[in-house]
Amino acid sequence: MKKGLLLLLFTLFISLLVACGDDSEESNAESGSEESSSEENGSEEASENKSIDSLSIGFVPSRDPEEIITATEPLKELLTEEMANLGYDIGEVDITVGTNYEAVGESLSAGTSDIGLIPGGTYVLYDDGAEVVLTATRAGLSVDSDDPKEWNDNKPTEASDEQATGYRALIIAGPSEKGQELAQKVNNGEELTFEDVNSASWAVMSSSSPAGYIYPALWLGDQYDKTITDLDNVVKSDSYGSSFARLAQGQIDVMVTYADARRDNEDKWQSEFGGEGTIWDETNVIGVTPSIYNDTVSVSKNSEIMDEDLKAAIQEAFINIAQTDEGKEVISIYNHEGYQKAESSDYDNERKAQELVQNQN
């Protein structure tokens, strides 16, 4: 009896050990399966990024090419990191500076460059092969209105904390009798006629200047179906400083310039140009052009790697880069301060401007 009881207890003990061992193996097997599954999922997540061997960027030579190459070198790493976060592993970022503006536009059209940082004028000339995705932003002004009276009611114009995608050209009347006459009509809420503006003497810049000629010519076309060549009394200045000097001394009645030019020449108005009062007291805005849009980040329509997802990632990457200190330093080579998403229609006035220039030639 005792031997039989001992044998039974021993058998039960062995069975219990075997059962525990099986549970442990099953647990280990399940754990191993979970770890294997986790590793597979991690591998799948890591492989979700799309690989691109090379992303090429063309810059226009608005500064010395070597200076641009040096200043934009950090962009390679910044863009690679941002694009990785957005789903793209870039093998190489290739940066080149075109021999001229047209060369960068042509490379976008041909698909030999994927991205181009180009002015609005270059973009519209090559928009058959280039697509704008971003507009550069710069510090704006305290006034941004189509109504010249608002500029006069809110003098002096100050810098703004807001970023702007473009800048205005202004038609400014000076302290001469005719200049004051035109300003008074505007400030009284009266519309100027073409006879009014044609009775004044004007100073303009060369015919290739956006703010000093092209956009004021568009303004005359929109307002009166006329252009600068229809004015009876026009002189060309070699600089905005020359125009301000003529305006201060009453040699001309009206000048055209970029919107913050009075801020830039405020100190010189009396000390160098001969103004009797301040530039804000003696000048008034009588016309405001449509906004002249800033430079673009454009992509190639004919690049082999370009699609909607990549375009969206490029937009996001440049916007994010511009918000970092290192990124701000890089894009400052072009006086850019940030980027906003753009539409082709934003540059319709630039298309009109280019048409005007071509007709003049």
Automatic annotation (TrEMBL):
Compositionally biased region (Basic and acidic residues): 146-158, 342-354
Annotated stretches, region: Disordered: 24-58, 144-163, 342-361
Regions of compositional bias (Acidic residues) in chain numbering: 24-46
Cleaved signal peptide residues: 1-19
Keywords: Signal
Protein name: Phosphate/phosphite/phosphonate ABC transporter substrate-binding protein
Species this chain originates from: Allobacillus halotolerans
Lineage of the organism: Bacteria, Bacillati, Bacillota, Bacilli, Bacillales
